[in-house]
């Protein structure tokens, strides 16, 4: 008996091997084992799982199978919702209160296009339900938390450990109680009975003793079990720890204006020792290393009102914009070389700078009274100069602040920095933020050197007081000099320190700029939102001139010009010219009145002026200048616009008859040269006299006849002109391209471009070469004008222009240049890519900007409100030359599309038709060859122009059709370029398709008629060749192939939303076929992994369930015996007749299943093939393929559309074959039963410590009887009946020869299995179970047995004192082990020992247990698995030592989730067991199956379970015993022993509900045993033996609880009216009293462990009693 008793040996071990052999025999060892088990004979029509079947014709199926349900959630499963896709026009967010647009209106077509491009709404395609696809992973932590709200707390005995103090009291109490036993006569019954009678019973279960029919009991149990169940299983399961799921598709950022890191500078006050005149200040940023001014000037005025009044005659009222005293600077590339330079100027006066600065250096404020007279004199002089020379300035002083010193809190140059700036909390250095500003690869390398710490985002605001200024030196005013000074300032021995400073006090506040500052003005003086009140002093946004290129597309209209006069050389000029100023004017004609009021004012003045004067250096014939003149450029420039420079000599002294200013020279810069804006450095000659008429169209370099020039017409004036414009590209290639496109638009020939005149007849070649030449343009302007450039290329593709009567196909050229541009961006801007390698600039262009140029003026075009863009959504349509000169037109062509176009040809009478008509006619006459043309007739040759009405087919050039064609016919480097960035063209195509369907109102039309055959063929060819590329190139160029593979998958995913879905399935099949052929030729896991990525992306479609036709298979036939029909024939697959549907087809990957549920079929086939043990090469992909399924199911689980249980059952139906697949993998699954034994339970001899608080190993010998003694007394060997089976399948090589799954993959697979079992239709399951053979059902039971162990609750004893101790021990052990584990992992990865050999080694049992006897077994026995620990579930992160940092609340939440998961998992297992019992109760082979059911039930009782689960478990066990009493008492007798032990164990539980149910079960067990033969000897014996082993071995056993349960059993016996007349009540009473005596004696033995004589005495008494009991019972 002892041998049979060991629980470990009771699993039917033959099952797995048996099934494998049996099936292998049947099918000649094919790897697809479980697949066609019930399909009877294999017909020739089977398709191996490695290949895709012919998919269902989805659209056809929907038409031929109208839905049975009218409405409701089930109806929604059948078809996509009608509002699935919409095109939304979202107004773009405007930063400013008023939108930036040119004031002059739209004159020039290029300006019009630019402005439209910056103001039109975003055109966004919205897939309304997209968020429900798996791409937006539902199992993210926040979502999980959301879904876990309101979970009940499950009560586990393991968590209810009494804490040690309470436990001690109990022990003392026991001692007192046992004294009373001593006082009574030896072995007195009386005392024992007295104790028992005084105990309180637990509450009795109502109706327990009623006789009800089994069906009713089952129904009642089921109702109880099904109430208040948690709906979503996956909400309780931790999400898979995937980095970023491959199907995650981020929405790109909205295109917006670029800003660097922003810095707010507030100017608080400026005070000198003496206050005698107004002083004007400006601020700007300079980068010393780049030798570049990196911001425009900010002018501010801190003079008192009284001082300002000195200038009254010269200043009109000051505009509020010029009164700003704070400014926001933007720095894209912060570095240690950035300085904030402050320059001061004053009103021009007689004397050089040194003289004028002297008083400021000599006088002190403290001596004001002493020097009163001198100061008065100085003040009155100043007043005179202000009166007379108020409009001129002179340089005065300057200083600089090293910006990073402020940010890093160290002030340099003895500056009195009020240190409110300790910087410990700087957030993120520049290196982290680099990604936010986009820069080219080359510039990146430069920023990273030494600039890592330059972040301006998180420093504490600082107030600076600057006390020293350096006086300006007249001969050192240039920027070059400034850079030398700044470089010098950083040296400790600065020359500047030796200079005598001007003492003053300038107070500044410097801080990071707030997110949305109030009262802010842009560099164009527009108000930025929010701007609550126009009367408040504003803050100025200062324009940045970035140190290096910034690659961001333009999004707002801006058109500014900065003129920087640098130096003048009048040394060789005759005559007097010493105090020189330059008057700068922007002219739109030659008359003096043509000066435009477009020059920005500085501080305390008007917003705009007609002229600006540079500051004067006294008595210098060759001055340097440091002025910056800012001009607002008119949007449209003509040849007459120019900048005019007039040089004046200013006489500082007031003399008789001398003019204030005398003109001494003139020069100018025409703004346009050959139609392009002129910018850059100029060295201009200066004329001595006024320029002659019509000078403005010529450059001053041209020697005009009869003019006198300074220094013989040599260049003497250096000036720099810089444009910051979103209108002028400043790139010759872009300029030429745009000019030619607009020439087509305006249809004005000849076109003047550069120095060329282009006639209409050579326009085509010029246009093509200009498109090709776009590759030569600079990347920065290409990016700035990216949106407009791509729009124009699209337009040329969609509407091929007609030039000189010929249609010009620009398709190929446009496609080529697009591919080239896209690749350039990808190559140089690689910092701005997402995980799929999509450049963010391009993806945001597609997502927000791209739209189809609408071809029909009557279409609901969104552009109604945009300014006269005409019907072509991309701005003025390309103009088409007309061909037909006859007055009469075919009526059919005068469609409502025609519009009047300005026409320069007087011969043409009648209205010119629309471009489409012309194009159509031309195609008709030419019949263009499709291979090199974007234009193709839709499959029919149209009649020649002018034939009978209605003969010309309607051709609409659709961008996606042209794109597909062009891609298919491309070759060589163009094709390669397109492949490199396939995602871009795919996404363009999809958006074009959706726009077309939306505007043609065809999103409602049947999908089969949406697209012409031609287009479908092109798509097929495209997918096929790209799949070919993937297959042929994955070994050579994996990075490209990975990108190509995901792009293709996303493309097909998108097409499922808009095209014929059956057609898309065939595309998927085509891909599948190509990959399959190669995979099985090469056995290469990389390719298989690519296919899994592909599958995962395609299946992440938000309507994945609908795509699988979940309603196509109706409920199975009512009779348990399935009808015999050809399982694999086409007809049965599509049959709607229930009786034709073979149930097996629903559970196998049969051909009908895979055809109907095409995508689910692919997923499950992949799972089956990769998990197949014979498929060794794919071992590494287990986790990946399991996560595909896990991901889908967890997504369905949380999807609100499938919340209804009926709908969920339909969804689960798509996964029924999963059950078979998992049964098939059973031998390879991670053995959770084994790990429990190895880790937490210190081997076989370990007794009943179900609450694994980890102390069992140490506890031996503390307060317990030696286990071996107790066992001997109980009559068993030392293998404890309570210990777990050592392994749950035979560890023989035959079964474990294959690589085992990791615990993580196994757990994922099992949770998926439970989900299917939970949600599938019970009737369907029952029918299928009927069909299974005994060995298959047994295997299913083995699987459930494993599930019980896998999801067992691991006690969270962290909360108790003992737990703490145990926990600390675990922790230290973990750390000791982690190094060895890591080494082993590395070994496995590096391949020195494969995971498989390791497995084989383990399975041969070569690894002995470690002598240390630690709870963890030997190190050898570990594979590096993070989860082979018995506290695995309650802390995945234990080994990362995070545990100690987690809060109690987090731990409690975790315990809550774990408890609910364990409960729900076990309840699902219980539900399934009930279904199996119902299924087999009618068959003849029920014995072996029922034994298996009982085994699983008992195993679940042995694990840590919640009170809730145990209550249902005991109910099921009672029902089982009542239905099949002979099962326990005659066949499975050793199971009876186990059951008694489990029930007794639960009778001593600290939780009353568990005790109540266990007592009820135990009582009914006795009663049923008695009813079979008027005696319940078997139960008596088993219970007695169980009790002795229980009391002897359990460490925290509390006999008080058991006493209550015994009392409850007595109470039942007393209340059982039916059996009152029999001997039963007396027998029960005898048994209970006996048990009670044994209980008391055992407790006494525990106490007297130290007294050997007493102990032997007690043992003798105990054995005698035991013998009596056993004799009585037999």
Q: What is the helical fraction, as a range of percent? A: 40-55%
Q: What's the number of extended β-strand segments?
A: 31
Structural class: alpha+beta
Which sheet architecture does the biggest sheet show?
Answer: 13 strands, mixed
**What is the count of DSSP helices, taking H or I runs of 4+ residues?**
58
Report the average pLDDT across residues.
78
The low-confidence parts are: 1-44, 163-187, 410-452, 855-956, 1114-1141, 1237-1298, 1358-1443
The gross shape turns out to be: elongated
- Cα-to-Cα separation, first versus last residue: 16 Å
Q: For the CA atoms, what is the radius of gyration?
A: 45 Å
Give the amount of beta strand, in percent. 5-15%
Model description:
By secondary structure, the chain is α+β, with helices and mostly antiparallel strands. The chain is about 45% helix and about 10% strand. The protein is built from 58 helices and 31 strands. The strands form eight sheets. Strands 3, 4, 5, 6, 7, 8, 9, 10, 11, 12, 13, 14 and 15 form a 13-stranded mixed sheet that branches. β30 and β31 form a beta hairpin. α28 runs antiparallel to α29 and α54 crosses α56. The radius of gyration is 45 Å and the shape is elongated. About 45% of the residues are buried.
């Amino acid at each position: 008996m002892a041998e049979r008793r060991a629980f470990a040996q009771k699993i039917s071990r033959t099952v797995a091997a048996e099934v494998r052999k049996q099936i292998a025999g049947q099918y000649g060892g094919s790897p697809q084992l479980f697949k066609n088990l019930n399909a009877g004979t294999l017909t020739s029509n089977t398709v191996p799982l490695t290949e895709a079947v012919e998919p269902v014709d989805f659209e056809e199926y929907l038409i031929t199978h109208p839905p049975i349900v009218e409405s409701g959630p089930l109806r929604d499963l059948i078809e996509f919702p009608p509002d699935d896709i919409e095109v939304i026009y979202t107004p773009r967010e405007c930063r400013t209160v008023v939108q930036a647009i040119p004031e002059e209106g739209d004159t020039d077509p290029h300006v019009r296009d630019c402005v439209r491009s910056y103001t039109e709404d975003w055109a966004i395609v919205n897939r309304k339900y997209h968020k429900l696809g798996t791409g937006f992973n539902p199992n993210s932590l926040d979502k999980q938390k959301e879904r876990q709200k309101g979970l009940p707390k499950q009560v586990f005995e393991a968590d209810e450990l009494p804490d040690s103090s309470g436990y001690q009291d109990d022990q003392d109490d026991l001692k007192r109680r046992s004294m009373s036993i001593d006082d009574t006569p030896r072995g007195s019954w009386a005392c024992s009975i007295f104790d028992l009678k005084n105990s309180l019973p637990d509450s009795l279960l109502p109706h327990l003793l009623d006789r009800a029919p089994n069906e009713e009991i089952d129904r009642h149990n089921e109702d109880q079990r099904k109430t208040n169940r948690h709906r979503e299983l996956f909400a309780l399961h931790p999400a898979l720890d995937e980095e970023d799921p491959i199907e995650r598709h981020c929405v790109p950022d909205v295109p917006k204006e670029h800003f660097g890191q922003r810095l707010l500078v507030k100017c608080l006050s400026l005070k000198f020792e003496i206050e005698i005149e107004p002083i004007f200040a400006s601020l700007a940023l300079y980068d010393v290393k780049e030798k570049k001014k990196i911001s425009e000037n900010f002018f501010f005025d801190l003079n008192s009102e009284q001082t300002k009044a000195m200038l009254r005659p010269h200043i009109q009222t000051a505009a509020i914009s010029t009164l700003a005293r704070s400014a926001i600077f933007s720095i894209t590339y912060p570095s240690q070389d950035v300085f904030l330079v402050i320059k001061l100027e004053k009103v021009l006066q007689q004397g050089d700078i040194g003289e004028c600065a002297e008083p400021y250096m000599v006088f002190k404020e403290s001596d004001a009274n002493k020097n009163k007279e001198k100061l008065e004199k100085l003040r009155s002089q100043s007043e005179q100069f202000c009166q007379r020379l108020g409009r001129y300035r002179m340089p005065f002083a300057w200083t600089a602040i090293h910006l990073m010193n402020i940010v890093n809190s160290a002030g340099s140059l003895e500056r009195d920095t009020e240190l409110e700036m300790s910087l410990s909390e700087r957030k993120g250095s520049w290196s982290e933020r680099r990604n936010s500003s986009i820069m080219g690869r080359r510039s990146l390398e430069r920023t990273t050197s030494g600039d890592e710490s330059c972040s301006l985002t998180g420093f504490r605001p600082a107030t600076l007081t600057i006390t020293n200024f350096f006086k300006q030196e007249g001969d050192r005013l240039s920027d070059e000099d400034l850079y030398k000074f700044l470089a010098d300032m950083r040296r400790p021995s600065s020359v500047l320190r030796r200079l005598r400073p001007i003492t003053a006090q300038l107070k500044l506040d410097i801080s990071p700029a707030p997110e949305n500052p109030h009262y802010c003005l842009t560099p164009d003086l527009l108000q930025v939102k929010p701007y609550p009140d126009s009367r408040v002093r504003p803050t100025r946004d200062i324009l940045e001139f970035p140190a290096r290129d910034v690659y961001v597309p333009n999004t707002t209209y801006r058109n500014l010009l900065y003129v920087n006069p640098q130096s003048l050389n009048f040394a060789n000029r005759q005559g007097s010219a010493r105090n020189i100023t330059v008057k700068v004017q922007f002219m739109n004609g030659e008359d003096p009145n043509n000066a435009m009021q477009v020059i920005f004012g500085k501080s305390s003045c008007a917003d705009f002026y007609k002229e600006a004067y540079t500051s004067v250096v006294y008595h210098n014939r060759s001055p340097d200048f440091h002025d910056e003149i800012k001009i607002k450029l008119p949007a449209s420039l003509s040849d007459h616009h120019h900048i005019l420079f007039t040089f004046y000599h200013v006489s500082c002294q007031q003399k008789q008859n001398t003019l204030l200013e005398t003109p001494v020279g003139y020069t100018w810069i025409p703004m346009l040269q050959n139609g392009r804006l002129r910018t850059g450095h100029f060295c201009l000659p200066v004329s001595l006299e006024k320029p002659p008429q019509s000078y403005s169209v010529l450059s001053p370099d041209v020697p005009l006849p009869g003019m006198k020039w300074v220094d013989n017409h040599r260049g003497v004036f250096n000036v720099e002109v810089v444009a910051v414009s979103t209108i002028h590209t400043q790139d010759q290639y872009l300029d030429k391209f745009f000019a030619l496109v607009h020439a087509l638009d305006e249809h004005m020939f000849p076109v003047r471009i550069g120095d060329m005149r282009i006639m209409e007849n050579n326009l085509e070649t010029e246009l093509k070469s200009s498109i090709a030449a776009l590759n030569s343009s600079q990347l920065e302007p290409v990016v700035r004008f990216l949106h407009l450039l791509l729009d124009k290329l699209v337009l040329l593709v969609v509407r091929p222009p007609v030039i000189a009567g010929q249609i010009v196909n620009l398709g190929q050229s446009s496609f080529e240049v697009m591919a080239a541009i896209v690749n350039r961006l990808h190559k140089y801007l690689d910092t701005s890519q997402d995980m799929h390698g999509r450049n963010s600039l391009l993806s945001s262009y597609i997502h927000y900007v791209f739209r189809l140029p609408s071809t029909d003026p009557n279409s609901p075009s969104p552009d109604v409100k945009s300014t006269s863009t005409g019907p072509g959504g991309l701005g003025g349509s390309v103009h088409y030359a007309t061909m037909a000169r006859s007055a009469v037109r075919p009526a059919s062509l005068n469609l409502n599309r025609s519009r009047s176009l300005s026409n320069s040809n007087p011969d043409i009478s009648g209205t010119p038709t629309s471009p489409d008509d012309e194009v159509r006619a031309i195609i008709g006459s030419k019949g263009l060859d499709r291979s090199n043309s974007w234009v193709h007739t839709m499959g029919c040759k149209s009649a020649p122009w002018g034939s009978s009405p209605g003969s010309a087919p309607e051709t609409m050039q659709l961008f996606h059709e042209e794109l597909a064609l062009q891609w298919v016919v491309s070759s060589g480097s163009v094709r390669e370029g397109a492949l490199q960035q396939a995602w871009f063209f795919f996404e363009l195509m999809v958006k074009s398709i959706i726009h077309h369907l939306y505007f043609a109102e065809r999103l409602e039309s049947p999908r089969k008629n949406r697209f012409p055959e031609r287009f479908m063929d092109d798509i097929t060819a495209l997918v096929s060749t790209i799949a070919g590329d993937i297959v042929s190139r994955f070994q050579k160029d994996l990075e490209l192939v990975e990108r190509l593979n995901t792009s293709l998958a996303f493309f097909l995913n998108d097409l499922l939303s808009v095209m014929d879905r059956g057609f898309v399935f065939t595309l998927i099949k085509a891909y599948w076929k190509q990959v399959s052929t190669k995979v099985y030729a090469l056995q290469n896991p990389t390719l298989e992994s690519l296919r899994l990525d592909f599958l995962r992306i395609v299946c992440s479609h938000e309507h994945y369930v609908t795509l699988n036709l979940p309603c196509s298979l109706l409920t199975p036939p009512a009779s348990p015996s399935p009808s015999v029909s050809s399982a694999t024939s086409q007809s049965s697959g599509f049959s709607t007749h229930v009786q034709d549907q073979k149930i097996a087809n629903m559970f196998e990957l049969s051909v009908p299943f895979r055809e109907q549920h095409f995508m689910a079929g692919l997923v499950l086939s992949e799972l089956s093939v990769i998990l197949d043990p014979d498929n060794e090469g794919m071992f590494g992909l287990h986790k990946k393929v399991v996560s595909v399924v896990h991901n889908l199911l967890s997504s369905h689980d949380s999807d609100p559309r499938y919340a209804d249980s009926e709908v969920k059952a339909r969804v689960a139906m798509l996964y029924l074959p999963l059950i078979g697949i998992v049964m098939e993998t059973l031998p390879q699954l991670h053995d959770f039963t084994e790990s429990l034994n190895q880790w937490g339970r210190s081997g076989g001899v370990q007794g009943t410590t179900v609450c694994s608080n980890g102390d069992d190993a140490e506890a031996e010998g503390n307060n317990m009887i030696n286990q071996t003694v107790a066992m001997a007394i109980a009559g068993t060997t030392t293998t404890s009946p309570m210990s777990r089976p050592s392994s749950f399948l035979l560890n023989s090589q035959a079964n474990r020869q294959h690589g085992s799954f990791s615990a993580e993959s196994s757990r994922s697979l099992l949770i998926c299995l439970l989900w299917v079992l939970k949600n599938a239709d019970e009737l369907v399951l029952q029918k299928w179970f009927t069909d299974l053979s005994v060995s298959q059902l047994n295997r299913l039971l083995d699987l459930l047995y494993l599930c019980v162990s896998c999801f067992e609750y691991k006690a969270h004893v962290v909360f108790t004192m003992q737990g703490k101790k145990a926990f600390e021990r675990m922790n230290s052990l973990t750390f000791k082990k982690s190094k060895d584990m890591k080494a082993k992992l590395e070994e496995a990865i590096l391949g020195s020992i494969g995971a498989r050999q390791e497995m084989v080694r383990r399975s041969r049992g070569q690894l002995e247990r470690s002598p240390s006897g630690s709870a963890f077994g030997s190190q050898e026995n570990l594979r590096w698995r993070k989860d082979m620990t018995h506290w695995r579930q309650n802390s995945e992160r234990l080994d990362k030592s995070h545990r100690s940092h987690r809060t109690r609340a987090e731990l409690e939440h975790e315990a809550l989730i774990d408890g609910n998961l364990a409960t729900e998992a076990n309840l699902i297992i219980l539900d399934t067991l009930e279904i199996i019992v119902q299924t087999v109760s009618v068959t003849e082979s029920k014995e072996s199956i029922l034994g298996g059911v009982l085994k699983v039930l008992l195993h679940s009782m042995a694990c840590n379970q919640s009170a809730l689960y145990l209550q249902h478990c005991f109910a099921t066990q009672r029902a089982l015993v009542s239905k099949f009493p002979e099962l326990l008492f005659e066949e499975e007798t050793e199971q009876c022993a186990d059951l008694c032990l489990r029930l007794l164990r639960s009778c001593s539980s600290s939780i009353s509900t568990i005790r109540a149910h266990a007592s009820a079960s135990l009582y009914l067990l006795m009663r049923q045993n008695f009813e079979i033969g008027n005696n319940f000897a078997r139960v008596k014996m088993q219970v007695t033996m169980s009790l002795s082993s229980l009391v002897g071995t359990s460490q925290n056993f509390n006999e008080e609880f058991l006493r209550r349960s015994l009392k409850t059993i007595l109470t039942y016996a007393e209340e059982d009216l039916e059996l009152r007349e029999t001997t039963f009540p007396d027998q029960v009473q005898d048994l209970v009293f006996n048990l009670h005596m044994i209980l008391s004696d055992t407790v006494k033995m525990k106490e007297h462990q130290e007294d050997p004589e007493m102990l032997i005495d007690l043992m003798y008494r105990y054995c005698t009693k035991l013998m009596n009991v056993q004799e009585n019972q037999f």
